[in-house]
Write a structure and sequence with these properties.
By secondary structure, the protein is an alpha+beta fold. It has three domains: about 5-80 and about 100-180, 2-Layer Sandwich (Beta-Lactamase); about 230-320, Orthogonal Bundle (Helix Hairpins), CATH 1.10.287; about 325-475, Histidine kinase-like ATPase, C-terminal domain (Heat Shock Protein 90), CATH 3.30.565. It has helices at about 5-60, 75-85, 170-205, 205-215, 235-280, 285-320, 330-345, 365-385, 440-450; strands at about 70, 105-115, 120, 135-140, 145-155, 160-165, 325-330, 350-355, 365, 390-395, 400-410, 455, 470-475. The strands form three sheets. It has a six-stranded mixed beta sheet with strand order 1-3-2-6-5-4. It has a five-stranded mixed beta sheet with strand order 8-10-11-13-12, covered by helices on one side. Strands 7-9 form a two-stranded antiparallel sheet. Helix 5 runs antiparallel to helix 6 and helix 7 (about 330-345) runs parallel beside helix 8 (about 365-385).
Length: about 475
């Protein structure tokens, strides 16, 4: 199922932004919590030391031996502070009043003797020990609330001062900081989504231009697409698309040319078949009728061979590449093709010689196509060689390549015409053979698919003075 590029980019970008936001948020939250704890712990310790100094300086000596603990009465203070808060409930809670700060009510303290006797406490502190009498910081649960305590030991007077603070202060501060950090993200993400939606749409607009240009094209128009102001990232797409259109146009033109040429070439054998059939019908002489039927058979064979070669050429044109992962023995394929064409060669009283070593290293290729190549080489040599002619096919193995050499004693080809003999429907001597001019075109196409090199050679044997060709397959 195709996914929208715009949706994919939006989900990906926003997903990454969201993950980064969560990471930064958690990291900031933990860091803020750590810093707030350090600041409040230092303030708690400082408050304990100041309170200790005030108490020790102002406390009466006999106070340390009282039976009942002294309670500092803050009820009037709390009542005044509560009244102040209700009257100004629309104002900021964090404002400082003449009586003090609201957060001061969150602080409780106790003074204990070393023998565990409570000497004094604040009105909001319990009678029980807030925590055990061990110097330092502790977190405790007291009256279903979390407190942070600091214990200060005074060995001179033999007392412990416990100062505790409700953690609600810290939690409230951390919550406010977190809320302030989170608000820009909550407001900014929808805005970012809206901006990204339009920016990505604007960035994808050139793709829409390309699709519209392709959509508006007529099937007959295969000219390259030209779009001005195209983004550099899309230039490879335009180049590849134009290259495809050029190849498609060339393929259609080749197929059209091939079809026209094939129709033209088939007219001759079909006309001959019709002529010989008519002559056989009107002939009253038995020998003339036999001759007409013999010519008719030859015309049918010629038409059959032409049609076979046309079909072979059509298949080869549709092949652009193939996996050459099969090991092929050229010697074995050459022997098979020599055996198959032996009857045709014998009818013309020609001789064929195969020279191939028994041990040949196989090459990578397509055995069916290479067999077709060898067969067309031999048929071409037979068609253009005279009666009682000589044909030789040799397989030579070298270090980098394996070569197929085909030699005959026919008329040969001039050097200046060598490039034209591999064109379709080209016949060097049209009146001297029954070929359709496709054999060497098929050979050239198969060699091209195998990355083989075709080159003319000069035979070292004077008996083979005709057309000599070498096809070199890489090992």
């Amino acid at each position: 199922m195709m996914r929208s590029i715009r949706n994919f980019l939006l989900v990906s970008i926003l997903g990454i932004v969201f993950l980064c936001m969560v990471f930064f948020f958690i990291s900031t939250y933990l860091q803020t919590q750590h810093e707030v704890d350090e600041v409040y712990d230092s303030q708690l310790a400082q408050s304990a030391r100041m309170l200790h100094a005030l108490l020790i300086r102002n406390i009466e000596p006999n106070t340390l031996s009282v039976d009942e603990p002294i309670v500092f009465n803050d009820e009037q203070y709390l009542e005044n502070l509560s009244s102040k808060t209700n009257d100004d409930e629309d104002e900021d809670e964090d404002e400082v009043s003449p009586l003090g700060h609201f957060y001061e009510t969150m602080l409780a303290y106790q003074l204990w003797r070393q023998d565990g006797k409570l000497i004094l406490r604040s009105s909001n502190a319990p009678e029980l020990q807030i925590t055990n009498l061990q110097p330092g910081f502790k977190s405790v649960l007291l009256n279903q609330r979390q407190w942070r305590s600091f214990t200060l030991q005074d060995n001179e007077y033999g007392v412990f001062l416990l100062v505790a603070e409700k953690l609600e202060i810290r939690e409230e501060l951390i919550s406010e900081i977190t809320e302030n950090l989170l608000t820009p993200y909550v407001v900014g993400i929808p805005l970012l989504l809206f901006i990204l939606w339009h920016l990505i749409g604007h960035g994808l607009y050139p793709l829409i231009n390309i699709s519209q240009a392709i959509k508006n094209r007529q099937p007959s128009n295969l000219e390259p697409i030209q779009i001005s102001g195209l983004a550099p990232e899309l230039l490879p797409i335009e180049t590849a698309l134009n290259a495809l259109l050029i190849r498609l146009r060339d393929t259609i033109e080749r197929e059209k040319s091939f079809t026209d040429d094939a129709a033209h070439e088939l007219r001759t054998p079909l006309a001959q078949i019709k002529l010989h059939a008519q002559n056989a019908q009107v002939s009253h002489n038995e020998s003339d009728k036999k001759l007409c039927l013999k010519l008719l058979e030859l015309s049918v064979d010629q038409a059959t061979r032409t049609i076979e070669q046309l079909l072979q050429m059509a298949r080869l044109q549709s092949i652009h590449s193939f996996q050459q992962n099969k090991k092929v023995s050229l010697g074995k394929l050459a022997r098979q093709q020599v055996a198959q064409i032996h009857t045709q060669i014998s009818q013309r009283h020609q001789q064929i010689v195969l020279e191939a070593p028994d041990t040949l290293q196989p090459i990578q290729g397509n055995d069916l196509l290479i067999s077709l190549l060898i067969r067309n080489l031999l048929e071409n040599a037979s068609l253009y060689s005279p009666e009682n002619g000589l044909i030789r096919i040799s397989i030579i193995q070298e270090q980098l390549a394996t070569k197929i050499l085909v030699e005959d004693n026919g008329p040969g080809v001039a050097k200046d015409k060598y490039d034209t003999i591999f064109q379709r429907f080209h016949r060097e001597n049209p009146g001297d053979s029954q070929g359709a001019g496709l054999g060497l075109s098929i050979v050239s196409r198969i060699a091209e698919l195998h990355h083989a090199q075709i080159s003319p050679i000069q035979s070292s044997d004077p008996e083979y003075s005709g057309f000599c060709i070498s096809i070199s397959f890489p090992n």
